[in-house]
Write a sequence for this structure.
């Protein structure tokens, strides 16, 4: 079989890059082991303003419109919604956060993302908000699992998907690039944190982080908005919520833990003390975070027919649509990648000369 691109991994990165290349008329095969990946566990939260100091995500003015349009196009194609836009209430945890919120409201660059501040502790009867809260706009979440399922069905129907365990030792570089019975112009690794342990891109400074989330049923009233109180809470419907996420760099496995569950429930109890919850599900995944918080995209410095599209960390839902378009343009038209994401930024350190 002769194709243009062999993509390893059917998480959100691999799926959207494959979709983009197929839309541009290229032949693609995705190799996937069928096991649950970090994209399927992730809540898909999109939040343009984050952190203790309420800072806009890098390039969000470009990334957010691209993501919304991309998911809208996919919804039109598959005839079902994938991106749920829902306002977020950022609950201030102390006076310093309140002051940062006030400062951002005075900055014109934030006017499209932040609404009014409420300082009353009695504004929402079911929540403790001693320092008040601010409403964040253009926030929402991606229904990642349904989207990946639809894309997988599309790839299978298009003869673009192969369920298999990928072994790097099966790659043949000369005289032509092959993996088993497939000859490809390029192989692109979209394998999440696993790339940090593989033979091709382990030299990149990945900083993977485990995260656990809970799905709960509840009795009681909550605002029909996303909550951010150090953790986040997404209302799925009138009686179910999802909360998360923990952040653990040492235990890089997908085992769920009592420690994480208790910490998430305690944080929720502190903010919503009268809310009664029952655990429905607990999940764990490993985010492919990077040292400088920018993705790893580009070609291997010694084996240019081997490439990577990875490292989106906790912001994949926001970043991947725009970057998949940039990388497709690079692959098809030799358009230079943005320097911030191009893995050339690490070439000299690891491949001098």
């Amino acid at each position: 079989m002769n194709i243009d691109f062999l993509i390893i991994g059917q998480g959100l990165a691999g799926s959207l890059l494959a979709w983009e290349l197929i839309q541009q008329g290229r032949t693609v095969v995705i190799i996937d082991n069928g096991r649950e990946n970090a994209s399927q566990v992730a809540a898909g939260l999109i939040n343009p303003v984050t952190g203790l100091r309420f800072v806009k995500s890098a390039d969000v003015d470009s990334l957010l419109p691209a993501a919304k349009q991309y998911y809208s196009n996919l919804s039109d194609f598959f005839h079902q919604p994938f991106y749920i836009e829902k306002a977020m209430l950022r609950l201030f945890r102390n006076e310093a956060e309140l002051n940062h919120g006030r400062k951002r409201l005075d900055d014109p660059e934030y006017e499209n993302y932040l609404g009014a501040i409420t300082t009353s502790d009695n504004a929402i009867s079911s929540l403790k908000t001693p320092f008040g809260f601010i409403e964040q706009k253009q926030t929402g979440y991606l229904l990642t699992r349904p989207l990946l399922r639809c894309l997988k069905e599309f790839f299978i129907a298009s003869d673009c998907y192969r369920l298999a365990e990928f072994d790097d030792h099966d790659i043949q570089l000369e005289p032509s690039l092959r993996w088993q019975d497939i000859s490809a112009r390029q192989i692109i690794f979209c394998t999440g944190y696993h790339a940090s342990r593989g033979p091709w891109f382990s030299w990149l400074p990945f900083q993977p982080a485990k995260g656990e989330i809970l799905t709960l049923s509840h009795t009681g009233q909550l605002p029909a908005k996303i909550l951010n109180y150090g953790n986040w809470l997404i209302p799925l419907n009138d009686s179910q919520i999802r909360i998360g996420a923990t952040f653990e760099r040492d235990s890089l496995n997908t085992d769920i833990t009592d420690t994480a569950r208790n910490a998430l429930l305690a944080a929720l109890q502190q903010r919503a003390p009268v809310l009664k919850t029952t655990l429905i599900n607990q999940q764990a995944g490993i985010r492919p975070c990077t040292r400088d918080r920018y993705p790893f995209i580009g070609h291997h410095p010694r084996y240019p027919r081997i490439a990577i599209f990875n490292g989106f960390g906790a912001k994949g839902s926001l970043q991947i649509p725009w970057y998949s378009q940039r990388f497709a343009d690079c692959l098809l038209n030799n358009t230079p990648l943005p320097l911030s994401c191009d893995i050339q930024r690490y070439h000299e350190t690891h491949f001098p000369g």
Q: What stands out?
A: The chain has a mean pLDDT of 94. The chain is about 25% helix and 25% strand.
